[in-house]
Amino acid sequence: MTETLTIxxxxxxxxxxxxxxxxxxxxxxxxxxxxxxxFRITDGLQKDFGDDRVVDTPLAEAGIVGTAVGLAMRGYRPxxxxxxxxxxxxxxxxxxxxxxxxxxxxxxxxxxxxxxRIPFGGGIGAVEHHSxxxxxxxxxxxxxxxxxxxxxxxxxxxxxxxxxxxxPIVFLEPxxxxxxxxxxxxxxxxxxxxxxxxxxxxxDVTVLAYGPMVKTALQAAEAxxxxxxxxxxxxxxxISPLDLDPVxxxxxxxxxxxxxxxxxxxxxLGAEIAARVTETCFHxxxxxxxxxxxxxxxxxxxxxxEEYLPDLDRVLDAVDRSMGF
Amino acid sequence: MTETLTIxxxxxxxxxxxxxxxxxxxxxxxxxxxxxxxFRITDGLQKDFGDDRVVDTPLAEAGIVGTAVGLAMRGYRPxxxxxxxxxxxxxxxxxxxxxxxxxxxxxxxxxxxxxxRIPFGGGIGAVEHHSxxxxxxxxxxxxxxxxxxxxxxxxxxxxxxxxxxxxPIVFLEPxxxxxxxxxxxxxxxxxxxxxxxxxxxxxDVTVLAYGPMVKTALQAAEAxxxxxxxxxxxxxxxISPLDLDPVxxxxxxxxxxxxxxxxxxxxxLGAEIAARVTETCFHxxxxxxxxxxxxxxxxxxxxxxEEYLPDLDRVLDAVDRSMGF
Amino acid sequence: MxxxxxxxxxxxxxxxxxxxxxxxxxxLVQLLTPEGERVEHPDYSVDVGDQELRxxxxxxxxxxxxxxxxxxxxxxxxxxxxxxxxxxxxxQVGAGHALAADDMAFPTYRxxxxxxxxxxxxxxxxxxxxxxxxxxxxxxxxxxxLYTVVIGAQTLHATGYAMGVQRDCAESAVLAFLGDGATSxxxxxxxxxWASSLSAPVVFFCQNNQYAISVPIERQSxxxxxxxxxxxxxxxxxxxxxxVLAVLAVTRAALAAARDGQGPTFIEAFTYRMGAHTTSDxxxxxxxxxxxxxxxLRDPIARVKAYLARSGIADADFxxxxxxxxxxLAARIRKGTLDMPDPAGTEIFDHVYAEMPPPLAAQRAxxxxxxxxxxxxxxx
Amino acid sequence: MxxxxxxxxxxxxxxxxxxxxxxxxxxLVQLLTPEGERVEHPDYSVDVGDQELRxxxxxxxxxxxxxxxxxxxxxxxxxxxxxxxxxxxxxQVGAGHALAADDMAFPTYRxxxxxxxxxxxxxxxxxxxxxxxxxxxxxxxxxxxLYTVVIGAQTLHATGYAMGVQRDCAESAVLAFLGDGATSxxxxxxxxxWASSLSAPVVFFCQNNQYAISVPIERQSxxxxxxxxxxxxxxxxxxxxxxVLAVLAVTRAALAAARDGQGPTFIEAFTYRMGAHTTSDxxxxxxxxxxxxxxxLRDPIARVKAYLARSGIADADFxxxxxxxxxxLAARIRKGTLDMPDPAGTEIFDHVYAEMPPPLAAQRAxxxxxxxxxxxxxxx
Lengths: 325, 325, 380, 380
Ligand SMILES: Cc1ncc(C[n+]2csc(CCOP(=O)(O)OP(=O)(O)O)c2C)c(N)n1
Ligand SMILES: Cc1ncc(C[n+]2csc(CCOP(=O)(O)OP(=O)(O)O)c2C)c(N)n1
Ligand SMILES: [Mg+2]
Ligand SMILES: [Mg+2]
Prior knowledge:
The complex is a heterotetramer, with 2 copies of chain A and 2 copies of chain C. Chain A is α/β, with parallel strands linked by helices.
């Protein structure tokens, strides 16, 4: 059955299906119960599955993630919602020193099938701490896996795949795209979770993006096409581990690569990708890998976010610079 | 006056001088008072400056950093000791959402002259969480500055410069080198805090390191010299901001670059440096920038740390690979 | 097992208190009933002259007016979001009036009433919610810190600031605001531990408006919040948060004790959030209209008005004048909001550091150059 | 100001307790005096037969013997570090004996005594301190989690595990260990808030050994720690941590209450760390020898021995047999430590994930290949 769904609704359905499929799945977070979460991603789930399975927690992120660790040890599959990207940091100790390390610490005896859902990124006109892109912090943390979805279908399947996966996963949801719609085949065969995907073929420059920036990259490709430039756009989908083989193949053809993300450029994902692409495709590169990202500043007040965030023009500017080498 | 000092003693003297020079300097941390800290870096300071200026805090890192913020707002210059690298994460929220952002939030009205001292890195045969290299987390955080010292002179001067500086600084101390000695001119003119330094000239490959790995890089250069290979070694010293002009100049000459650090390679400092060096020196590079770092795993039990940590051989191996391009 | 099977009994921090209290709730300090009658309390009294009473009333009315106008501006798309203080005016105005000039307050994101009392221009608060800046006022000059959005983080700042006050041997105190939900954050508990251990002159002022967004207070604590303090070794007291006089009395006493070297106090101002959590919220999803109706009867402003009128401290002219002042304020806020200039793009870079590092300066220069490229209208 | 100027009085959680207590300290539950006399307590009693008494004694002696041997091994360079339990044997053995088979314990890094009672092989603890692994035992099979080095983090795990127990409708309880210093960590306070709010079947067992490394308990709390719990709405009790019977009684009761759906309890086992914090520490820098002398008189083992001997439950042969068993154990630990194989280098990679991602598999392959290159002895 194919339905047209927003990313938000696709996540809601995916969570519902995970709750149905496995009685060990427990959702935890602030306001996810009666309210259905501030973005309504868990709308109706507490009503249908009860407050033991959809838990409105006390207001403390370390508590959410730390108790999830204990639940996982007891055989549960906790799915934690962090209300906004900027509020994940109180849970940072539990994530980095515990969630990420317990499988290794126990030499595999204790699995940590925990999903940390985080609506991430900017562009929604919010106040401080509601528009951040903390993915690099997690991708630098061995023991965690990190994915970012960009379409309703990936949202619907990805959340289910993440919950079923035995390792802890930071699951990043492109909050400003929550309301974007596309058809989802609810019975189809999903793409693997840890695989990047070429979403538009092209020959001149390879453009990489994930989460909310995939749409921006596609818009840029559209605009470039009008000027006779052909961009290949790859949705990375998985941020840790990175799945770069399709990227290497593409760059070997195009010789040029631009990475786009909202997070600050310095030590953002673009840094790692640039380093790897250069290592692997050194002799194919006609230009250095260029990065389009947030500036190395805190996320600004919302009146300035359009200037801060990468947009179509900044992507095209980088494409120009790449072609100019 | 020139004295031969260990890095640990140089830090102790530097802190002493900072306490003498500015009555607003307050040291805070776990066990830094009567015990003098687990590494004795603050030895004798509480005795001489009193427990209002050298504060044994309750056992809570968020508390240490969070109260330092308030002290800074009141005009003090707090110097926080985090006992070991792996224990900075409970303070992560305060560091990332507060310390790093308050200057911007207040449009410059509130300065945050806070120093966070962290003994970092491995090689001391310790148990879990005592050997980590969290610098990339901080370097990806706009609003913080990050430095790493590698010599007694830099330790002595650097800590004083950091305390006198108006911005928050994560001050990384190479714990396994605490006991290494060198002459320090206590009245000399210090190098600027935010500047990298060529510590050995060479022509074939540029090797970058900071903190504990500087010594490793120098050893590698020594060994390479015996085989007729000339490595230029640069001590980065400042990790955020990076001072790469000397690196660019060097790489333009050598055409080859290897970055060494203990932190996991993925999204470690090597990633950023590789991306920037490639962007800036694209046409000079004979080989991609290569990275020698920790593996993308938790720091292992100490019986395996020699295998985990970059050493002379792994640096030389990377040099070989670079030359092989 | 008896010793374990009961919830430990708690000490009433207001021994012998005969104050009226809400049904099913522990006693709370009250000096002015919902009906506007002055009542006595064995431990707390407040010495307010007629002029201060009128000033309190004026502040209550004006901050509500401001709040209503801001909510309207948000509905009209002029603000990104607004966090309403509706129902919490007495808690905030009372606490604000308790502060001495050189005390320092550390608000959350909802203390517009305290901001007002501290002399912050409403437009400097509005600018935050409009997305122009993170608050336009001077925290040092006003003795009122910038808003802190990360729940609870400011309580540690307040405690550290109080440590500075101690070191300065200053006769000042610090007032740390927090919500009921915030009491669950680790950092807030650390702040209390710190303050207790160091006897820091900080008062924790918790507006228990009974909800953290949608989550009712019962999820955060199964005993009244003021009792938390005893576990950390310092006094806790529960006050009727809709009674501006009681709040003033209790907060003044706690701040005086702090200045006097007696360390921290925890004040639980028991109140109710009459509006939505913010303009983005829909409280009909999680609370009953009847609850709201019940709390309307405890309105923090009506009782002061009733008292002022009945006691003859204020007359119809006074009330009308305040109304008019409210209208003027609202108009000024509206105009000020609409006239507010957008920030310059370079603001992104200019305050990140006291000393801008060269790589950031380079980014800034590129930014300026890049945008100059569009100047001629060549934006694609 | 009186209502504010005093530290809130606290309820004695053991009402009417006439138990002997340490000078200047609040009453604590005691069933066996330092002189080895059984005493009654109004709320707590323990039903232990002679055999269990002897078993308790044996465990106390053997864990001390293990500890002494480990300290010696560290001094000889065979362990990287060792965290001694000296002085805390009764707290740990008593707590361990209170656990039912399917209860779960969450230790810090010092609960070797509990490990022993849970059937963990000492060598599986030693391997952590030798740097071979992070603890070699099976946390699920033993009902004893791996050690947690980050102070306090395990208290949240314990609480979450207890939430799982609730969901399973199992009749089990969870015992979360923590130190006095740990009570200052935000996460620990969150764990208590969580446990209280959700009535989770978890007991917080705090060994107040009066120091967090060098920092005395007074820096963490100005009131006795057991009182913390009341602030969170659940019972706290203080027990003589050097009295194995009292610890057993109090912990059993608390675990039973938890299993019975009555929610959490906080137990403060008042004890003393007789040794250094770890072998890296030098306690002469921060505490007086006289303090140590005083605590020697409250030795947790001597009092049991005195009682067993005086009451005729054990005789000289028994004591000698236990001594001999201790020597054997020590020899086995020594030999086992020296014989312990080093881990394979590939262990660095093999357990990071349940499903190893391809880039890590590639790193592992490179690692293997790189080290194979040295096989022929060509390491520079
Ligand atoms: C660390 C953190 N987590 C989550 C949030 C999102 N959030 C904003 S307000 C709020 C509820 C706060 O409740 P309370 O402390 O009672 O204050 P109130 O809003 O009722 O004044 C939450 C969960 C946040 N701002 N910070
Ligand atoms: C988060 C964190 N901060 C600091 C440390 C370093 N540290 C190890 S043990 C210790 C003291 C712990 O004291 P307490 O909780 O009383 O336990 P005890 O060692 O006395 O058993 C400290 C500060 C740590 N392990 N974790
Ligand atoms: Mg609230
Ligand atoms: Mg202790």
